[in-house]
Amino acid sequence: MKAKPGYKLVQSQFRKYEEIPERWILSKLNKICDKISVGIATSTTKHFVEKGVPLLRNQNIKNGYIVIDDLLYISKEFAEMNKSKKLQEGDVICMRTGYPGQSAVVPSKMVGWQTFTTLIIRPCKKIINSQFLMIFLNSLGRKQISSIQAGAAQQNLNVGWLSNMSILLPSLSEQQKIVSILSNVDDLISYFDNSIESTEKLKKGLMQTLLTRGIGHKKFKKVKWFYGKEIEIPEDWNILHLTQISKIIDSLHITPKYSSKGFPMVRSTEIKLGDLKLDDAFRVSKKIYDQFTFNHVPRRNDIVMSRVGTYFVTSFVNTDEQFCMGQNTLIIHPEYDSRYLYNFLNSFFIQKQIEFLFDRTSGQKSMSLKNIRELKIFLPLILEQQKISSIFSKIDVKINYLESKKSNLENLKKGLMQKLLIGQIRVKI
């Protein structure tokens, strides 16, 4: 086997030979890092304080960034006892459990902070860029970890495994260029993320207004809402129970046998805000499909709802594909404008009712069919329902467009990252 011009063959951890750029090296992680260690591993409970030295844990480490909204603090005295574990700028901290290998770089504002049982990697700055190492660990590095742990029980990522991890290393200037390219893609992804967030915020604000004030009304009335509360709505609107304006079909409370092919079965995990997606749904046979659709065959413009979970989110059926509903779900077949009801069911006015109605006797939130049927809906005349739906639909089209752009960029980044890290695509320095 002969390498193409500008490339060389090296022995790889997973394949006998691997083709890499001529000037790149294949190295073990411990050869290019000044330190690979574990953060504080002894009990910290008695050293917690309200204000002190911040303590990062595994749950604070996300894919490429650190979150600090659930931060704990330890005393300065205890932190000083563990001064050898203090974080420095450019350190890469790495999850040991959950998503082993998931990493983030320590910024300057976190210098002196401590970590609890996370892995701390201190790159040799003359050899490897911290951001480059983080990108590697969050992609090819995690693939190596998965291959090592394949077929075995979940294990903690340890210093030994990390030290022996193989990494392809271009020159420092090429590393920096790769980081810059991927950072530009991240900036674009962030732009679409922010656009999605602001558009969703706009829709949320409009929902608060349109679902109580309507369009062009001058006369309003106060009506009882729930638990003695009052709310003001247009004079010609009604408040009706969900069961008065729709047919509600409960699913069978049994766990079926799934198949490799057949009809999609929507479980509570598939129900997310927006149009219903069937791509990742489990499959069932024709016999089971017929069993689960005995009372009602789901159809376009139906609404599906999860009866368990935190938010009782609904999805809108915008497909003619045949499917059935799994346990802990139900179908709502509206008698009026479906989109209007779908938006109302995902509004503040329903979530507020659900907060009072969910079953508090179990650890997991669930709601009885009786309570679901009695959910109160603000109902304008059909023409106004359609006008309100049209406004929301235009916003939804924009959100879907932005989400599609973001998804395309994420896929682009994933493919680009892979090729850049193994030298299939070279950058100009």
Descriptive account of the structure:
With 429 residues, the chain is of the alpha+beta class. It has three domains: 27-169, Adenine-n6-DNA-methyltransferase TaqI, Chain A, domain 2; 171-206 and 382-429, Bipartite methylase S protein (Helix Hairpins); 238-379, DNA methylase specificity domains (Adenine-n6-DNA-methyltransferase TaqI, Chain A, domain 2). Helix content is 34%, strand content 22%. It is built from ten helices and 23 strands. The chain has helices at 76-81, 130-149, 159-163, 172-213, 242-245, 286-292, 338-345, 348-357, 369-373, 382-421; strands at 7-10, 18-21, 25-28, 33-38, 48-56, 72-74, 92-94, 103-105, 114-115, 119-123, 166-169, 220-224, 230-234, 238-241, 246-250, 263-266, 274-275, 282-284, 303-306, 314-316, 324-325, 329-334, 376-379. The strands form eight sheets. It has a five-stranded mixed beta sheet. Strands 4-10-7-8 form a four-stranded antiparallel beta sheet. The protein has a three-stranded mixed beta sheet with strand order 6-5-9. α2 (130-149) crosses α10 (382-421) and α4 packs antiparallel against α10 (382-421). The longest helix is centred in the middle third of the chain and has 42 residues, at 172-213. The two termini are 30 Å apart. Mean pLDDT is 91; it is low at 359-364.
